[in-house]
Amino acid sequence: MENKTNICNLCPRDCGRDRSVTVGYCTEGDKLRVGRAALHMWEEPCISGKEGSGTVFFSGCHLKCVYCQNHDLAHSRAGVEITTERLAEIFSELQSQGANNINLVTPTHFTDKIIETIRIARAHGMDLPILWNCGGYEKVSTVRMLRGYADIFLPDFKYMSSEIANKYSNAPDYAPIAKQAIDEMVKIAPEPVFDERGIMMRGVIVRHLVLPGCYHDSEKIIEYLYSTYGDSIYISIMSQYVPVDCASLPRELRRKTTQYEYDKVVDHALKIGVKQAYIQSGEAAEESFIPAFDGTGVYPSKADPR
User: Fold this and answer.
1) How far apart are the first and last CA of the chain?
2) What is the reported pTM?
3) Cα–Cα distance measured from residue 150 to residue 202, given in angstroms and rounded to the nearest whole number
4) Which end of the chain is more exposed for a tag (fewer CB within 10 A), N or C?
5) C-beta separation of 196 from 239 below 8 A
């Protein structure tokens, strides 16, 4: 009889694979792998502040969008295998560097090990808010595991259209899944809380990246978020789409989002009454938001081979 003990169903793909033997849809096994751990200055102002967000980039991803800006990391071509104990040390090191939070990027497929890590880190005095930075395509049961562990949720809401979601992320059920997941996140962190510096300590910020040719879908997403949650969440409308150098990238995505497209979405948000929003300047897409996934901050300093 097949042993179901190690079957992984942490994400909506429900691939059901034993990741101690093979990789899941996320292209990761059951060992933690991290591409970079360092202060990151390019998150929303209430996340990075002046000190920076203590950002940990995990290898692998269960969405694998065709336009992914972190392509090598998402497809598991970058990253260092570490233990939960080492990850807990990294959290403490980021705190000692002055980080405002511990920002876990694409963490879903390592949820169980990250929860174990948070317990270890807190037992050793790490007391920063934990920020769950994910693609929005999450199982409610997995989000519920984070109650008492995650303080801030930073999910994407990428698509309302099932056709667009299927074409770009092989996830035609993206919108209903994301709606349920974000609803659960809001239940865990129902109202935004900030410290005296304006740094978020608890709450939900939903990100949306405006894609080329998709601004009508973007408008529907903003409408849904505002009509459902009003001012109990923040909405971050992002303009920083940059085409990746990939032969399989659909032709329509081989250009940047135009200022016109982005402005249409922002204007629509203002028109329907959105006030708690972050928007980006026209130069945002020219800036470097993609760090090097070269193991920075992952190795103990005395063992760093670089």
Assistant:
1) 47
2) 0.95
3) 9
4) N
5) no
